[in-house]
Amino acid sequence: MTVGKISATCWAIFVVMCVAFLPLGWVILSIHSLPLVIRAVLAIVVVLGLWWGPFVYAMYLSLAVMRNGDRRLLRRGIAGTAEVLSAKATNTVIQEGEFAWEAPRVYKYRLRVNLPGKAPYETDCSICASGIRQGSVVNVAVSPHNRKRVTIDVGQGSKDGASAPRGVPDSGIGTPSYASYASDGMAGRTGYAGSPRQGQSSDSQRLSMLAQLGQLHSQGVLTDAEFAAQKARILGD
Question: What is the pLDDT of residues 48-95, one digit of tens each?
């Protein structure tokens, strides 16, 4: 089961318990074969566990897993690679803090996961990480007990927190890695017309390229070093 389905199940249980917590508590209290104190404690534990337990876990999946990438899974999961079969920006944003004016958007990626010694399989990953294009290859971590639960390595395990997804230098799958995509001129993603080396660019073309370059840098698609190198190439021609 993917993180998205787990989260949806948690919210469904929470909604049901918002209506059923009083009847369930009454049923437990009506078990006269148990002492009153035990019935009261059991009612509180069961009702609160079924009611607020799913809510807390759903919030954890939203804020800690989808928003920032699953750091725990990255540390304890099975390392592998994945080819991005499709990339879709959803209508969901995850806001954290009272004044989060630009809450990050959740992107849904369809992945073909490759683990050592295992047959490739497909699953979905929902995460607040933009700029991963279809056909790229990224590093992932997979839950040992639920292979459908996958997180993309976006640097969430580093001290700097989430950044650009880490590419696979030599994936052997025959598709371009994220790292090569970030440095090859970004053709096809934002209308980038080609390398600055393809003839002398006019001032307007350079400004357009620099604007596109700045947008990719602000989205985390390019690292500081890659941004500086591409900027130098544009201004150097």
Answer: 888 889 988 888 777 778 887 888 888 889 999 999 999 999 888 877
Chain position carrying tokens 């970004």: 186
Phi, then psi, of 165 in degrees rounded to 5: -55, 140
If one counts the domains in the chain, the total is 3
Report which residue type is found at 30: S
Do residues 104 and 153 both lie within one domain? yes
What global pTM score does this model have?
0.58
CA distance 14 to 173: 42
Which two structure tokens, joined as six digits, stand for 215? 């947008």
Asked if 64 and 96 touch (Cβ cutoff 8 Å), the reply is no
Which two tokens mark 53?
């337990």
The C-alpha atoms of residue 55 and residue 57 are separated, in whole angstroms, by 5
Domain boundary, last residue among 178, 205, 228: 178
d(CA 179, CA 173): 15
Domain match, 161 and 88 both: yes
Q: Are the beta carbons of 235 and 197 closer than 8 angstroms? A: no
97-107 burial, b at 16+ Cβ within 10 Å, e below that, comes to eeeeeeebebb
